[in-house]
Write a structure and sequence with these properties.
Length: 151
């Protein structure tokens, strides 16, 4: 479904002659195609699943945030603006992000559900969180919250 949305958005951006959107969507689709090819060699002919696509999009956003930081330090404001525009385009395909309170409540419930007691259970807890809430949670923040609750 996400794959269809990306393709349709590319067609719409091309018709509207939105250069930045077209370039960004082509970049996303190229990265998606690369990942599909990698998993096809392992026997998965359908390509990567939506949750993996969401992970890819989140990593693209993270890369742009790092670039923005570097460009700001270098005084390259035109590049900061370009990266910010690309980030906004990518974010259109992500589900609504959980608030910090929702994330804390979800993590607390998950720890109880999994009967996690200490830091040894952190990996299992994070894996379940990623499986269930891919694309909706900032996992760097979630990791800190899980760790805080398991100490």
């Amino acid at each position: 479904m996400l794959r269809e949305r990306l393709n349709n958005a590319l067609k719409t951006a091309m018709k509207a002659k939105e250069k930045r959107a077209v370039a960004t969507l082509r970049l996303i689709l190229a990265a998606l195609k690369d990942r599909d090819i990698m998993v096809r060699t392992k026997g998965n002919l359908d390509g990567i699943a939506d949750d993996e696509i969401l992970g890819m999009l989140l990593s693209m956003i993270k890369q742009r945030a790092e670039s923005i930081s570097m460009y700001e330090k270098a005084g390259r404001l035109e590049l900061v603006e370009r990266e910010a525009e690309e980030t906004a385009i990518i974010q259109r395909f992500l589900p609504e992000q959980m608030s910090e309170k929702e994330m804390m409540d979800t993590i607390t419930d998950l720890i109880v559900e999994l009967d996690a007691k200490n830091l040894k259970d952190m990996g299992r807890t994070m894996a379940t969180l990623k499986e269930r809430f891919a694309g909706r949670v900032d996992f760097s923040k979630a990791s800190a919250m899980v760790k805080e609750q398991l100490i």
